[in-house]
Amino acid sequence: MNWLRERIRFDRNELSGAFGDIGTDFPLLVGMILAAGLDAPSVLIIFGAMQVLTGLAYGMPMPVQPLKAMAVIVITQKLAPNVLYGGGLAIGIVMLLLTLTGLIGWVARIVPKSVVRGVQFGLGMQLASLALRDYVTSDGWHGYALAAVAFALTLALLGNRKFPPAPFIILLGVAYALLFKLDGGAFSHAAGLRLPQFHKLEWADVLTGFLVLALPQLPLSLGNAILASQRVATDLFPEKKVSVRKISFTYSLMNIVSPFFSGVPTCHGSGGIAGHYTFGGRTGGSVVIYGAMYLTLGLFLGGGFQAAVKLFPLPVLGVILLFEALALMKLVRDMFSNAADFFIVLLVGLIAFGLPYGYVLGVVLGTLIVYFGKRILQPEPNADVRK
Fold first, then answer.
1. How far apart are CA 387 and CA 384, in angstroms?
2. Which of 58, 176, 248, 251 has its CA 20 to 30 A from that of 64?
3. Dist. CA 251–CA 230, nearest whole Å
């Protein structure tokens, strides 16, 4: 029983941690559902089920996230659902092959820690930029005021185990939505049991999805979903001894199963772990609670999707996303003591943040500099310096 309690707890802190990643996930899910015309109940049910299973499997905050590069491409190009499902299956197969052949372990061994920290730093900057540029500013002066109150609440309660912040700011957002965004009958026709729709995949869709979606996603997945997630898991939960092989294996299984039930492609992510931890999550319970929210919404209130979207105002999600980003960037502090390592962190982070395909470019360039150019950055201590 004590062993189970160490893995899964349901208390106020796990409830608070459950909302630590919603600022990343919810807008991407909404964007894909609307842009590609996906079946909302199916997406929510499968996404929630994957959260619950992952929380039980890891016994720690190892949440599930939509694949970000795929989501952005689908939203901006309004791709058909078949291509999205095909891309999900394609990347699931690729990741399974990397796991079974042991290549994922080889990648983890050759990529230096400073490069992984750079990937985390770059992702943190991207999330912070999204939060401040797009979310907080989305609702005019009302949104600024809402974000300011949510920020102050979070700052005052962050780290408080008795009164963790997330439930308060989520309730604040719901109250704001009910006052300014929703009418009383918004959910009147939403209730009713719904189940995920089975989807038959064609190999042509898998090939198209591989070329259009999986290839752009793969570098980000290797850098953030696998290597950076394993590093954050080791930083925050060293006793769990989470391996890159296990992370890549569950990543692959999720994407091999989800497309057949009309679910969006998913991964794990370092930002998600940091977000759950920052807001209080310490066991798989926070992820199970988070998944149960999506399961309930999809199974019983799937018809009220449009109303449910408004329950979580973007300024509030932006504040959650900002603190998730800060928690992720804070992890690079162990690189401060070495100038060469910190240079690599900054270089990789800026490349990942600012360039197309920045994650793969940052990982490759950073690794090459570490192995072949570090002497330029950090001369030998006894080197003869001529004045």
1. 10
2. 176
3. 12
Identify whether the C-beta of residue 237 lies closer than 8 Å to the C-beta of residue 191. Answer: no
Alpha-carbon span 280 to 273, nearest angstrom: 11
> Measuring CA to CA, which residue among 362, 94, 386, 113 is closest to residue 252?
94
Q: Cα Rg for the chain, rounded, in angstroms?
A: 21
Return all residues near 2 (Cβ < 8 A) that are at least 6 apart.
none
pLDDT in tens, 74-99: 877 788 999 999 999 999 999 999 99
Q: What is the Cα 75 distance to its own chain's centre? A: 17
Beta bridge partners of 266: 66
Q: Does position 45 have pLDDT exceeding 90, yes or no?
A: yes
Residues in the chain: 387
Cα-to-chain-centroid distance, residue 267: 8
Per-residue tokens: 159: 């780290």
What would the DSSP string read from start to end of 265-297? PEE--HHHHHHHHHTT--STHHHHHHHHHHHHH
- With 0-12 CB in 10 A as exposed, 13-18 as middle and 19+ as buried, what is 166? buried
Residue pointed to by tokens 């929380």 = 55
Contact 131, 318 (CB under 8 A): yes
How many angstroms separate the first and last alpha carbons of the chain?
69
